[in-house]
Amino acid sequence: MTEEESTARVRRGLSYVCEHLDALREHLAELGRTEELDRLKRAVVDGNEDPATPLDTIDRIVRADGDARGAYGASARTVPEPGPVGVGPAAEAEVAFLCPLGACARVEWAEPTMREAPRCRMGGVTLRWVKG
Fold it and tell me: What is the sign, positive or negative, of the torsion defined by CA atoms of 98, 115, 120, 22?
């Protein structure tokens, strides 16, 4: 795997973790291993450590407990990342929200019913928006 492929894999994995953070925390709490998730969050938010290491640790933990998707999720292992996942040619009025930390490939499309911008589940900050 090239460095670029490895980076894309980690970004997609972080996106999966961000989107499933509550369920993952619950799973790790049952195993008594939430400190691993806290370490990953610090790595992403503070940038003090490459998030690949704690992400791989979490992946091994949940896989060993029978979770076939692990911490990367099925799409994180199979979908290439030519650009931000889910961001294609946008119509003029479309707005997408992206990771404010630039750490993951998470994308949320704006919807008319949204009262506020979505937040990063790891850092707690508002996702940054881009308009087509």
Answer: negative
